[in-house]
Design a protein that fits this description.
CATH class of the largest domain: Alpha Beta
Number of strands: 14
Structural class: alpha/beta
Number of helices: 9
Strand content: 25-35%
CATH superfamily of the largest domain: Dihydrodipicolinate Reductase, domain 2
Strand order of the largest sheet: 8-9-10-7-11-12-13-14
Bound molecules: NADP nicotinamide-adenine-dinucleotide phosphate
Order of helices and strands: EHEHEHEHEHEHEHEEEEEEEHH
Length: 326
């Protein structure tokens, strides 16, 4: 690996803009290239974020020999195809969530990473947010006993967005579940694993996109109540209650600035600052993996991404969410 790890960003929308700002905070990262379907847009992004190269196609960026790792920031439906193309050009990949839209897409991506011997990780940034990582360690060490109940929600009002846009357009795998429902499902999976049963109900927009989903994940000795929606602003707190105590992740819990620990009636509130918008931590983790020759993350592995999307597939089957391309 070179002294600075050289990043290429494709799909220059909202998240790529935020990601590029956090990339600039990582001393051993370099924004080497940006790729858009539109060259003028790529040049404007290049000027804004001081990238070395700009390209008017994603393919040109994949061919750039100076790019070590590609970040994919397109709508969900293009993740699999673009990640596979990038890996077939020998690039390491950090792919926005969800890694693939379906379990099958995700399996294909993982297989290509294995064949090409390149690093592939889903940009599940919450796994690397310091407050969540700290709470996870506390829970793993048994501080709150065994978890019996968990609640997590993620909802914001988006019904005023364009019907053709990625949130409300079923052709772009729109809806709340894959965009933000993935976070409550992630937390339940991280702390409790794969549930034995799932019950869920969804509501739908006139475009056919799912707009809110309530889920119960059933475990042998625990239940998780999860919610995602594009219909309202929810509190966005997460509560993890165990046999000895409980932890509340402060809002917005998926990028939590801290947590409250309740043990034997004593309450401790802890602030755990994050760097930048919070993407710095996943970027640093990718660097750590690349510098140690890893092809997957020990903290958010291929199996984790596969099991997460398998859970979303199950929720979709149960609640009748289908995309037109399926
Ligand atoms: N980790 C997080 O916190 C977080 C936050 C928001 C979103 N995300 C994820 O990031 C991805 C992108 O979200 P976003 O909010 O950044 O979306 P966005 O603002 O709509 O940008 C997506 C970009 O993808 C490219 N694109 C390629 N084909 C497209 C098509 N047919 N229609 C529209 N855009 C197309 C466009 O870039 P060019 O025009 O430059 O080619 C577009 O600007 C999603 O998968 C989402 O789940 C993650």
């Amino acid at each position: 690996m070179p002294e600075k790890i050289r990043w290429g960003l494709v799909g220059l929308g909202k998240i790529s803009d935020t990601f590029a700002r956090d990339l600039a905070l990582v001393p051993d990262a370099e924004l080497t290239a940006v790729g858009s379907r539109n060259l003028d847009k790529a040049r404007a992004f290049q000027n804004e974020h001081s990238s070395r190269y700009s390209f008017g196609s994603y393919e040109e960026l994949f061919q750039c020999p100076e790019v070590d790792v590609v970040y994919i920031g397109t709508p969900h439906t293009f993740h699999a195809e673009l990640a596979i193309q990038a890996m077939q050009h020998g690039k390491h990949v950090l792919c926005e969530k969800p890694m693939g839209v379906t379990g099958d897409q995700t399996t294909r991506m993982i297989n290509v990473a294995r064949e090409q011997q390149v690093f592939l990780m889903e940009a599940l940034w919450s796994r690397f947010i310091p407050a969540i990582a700290t709470a996870y360690d506390l829970i793993q060490s048994g501080t709150i006993g065994s978890i019996r109940y968990q609640h997590a929600d993620f909802a914001f009002y988006a019904l005023d967005r364009e019907e053709e846009g990625r949130l409300l357009n079923p052709a772009l795998a729109g809806g709340s579940l894959l965009d933000i429902g993935i976070y409550p499902i992630f937390l339940s999976y991280l702390l409790l694993g794969v549930p034995e049963g799932i019950q869920c109900i969804s509501q739908f927009h006139k475009t056919g996109a799912e707009i809110q989903t309530a889920m119960v994940f059933e475990y042998t000795e625990a239940q998780a109540l999860l919610f995602s929606g594009l219909t309202c602003n929810s509190e966005m707190k997460a509560e993890i209650a165990g046999t000895k105590g409980s932890i509340h992740l402060h809002p917005r819990w998926h990028e939590s600035p801290g947590y409250t620990l309740e043990l034997n009636g004593e309450i401790e509130t802890v602030t755990v600052p994050k760097q930048g918008k919070g993407y710095v931590h996943e970027i640093q983790h990718v660097h750590h993996c690349l510098r140690n020759g890893k092809t997957q993350s020990p903290l958010w592995s291929h199996q984790d991404s596969q099991e997460l999307v398998n859970l979303m597939d199950k929720v979709r089957l149960e609640s009748g969410i289908r995309f037109p391309f399926e």
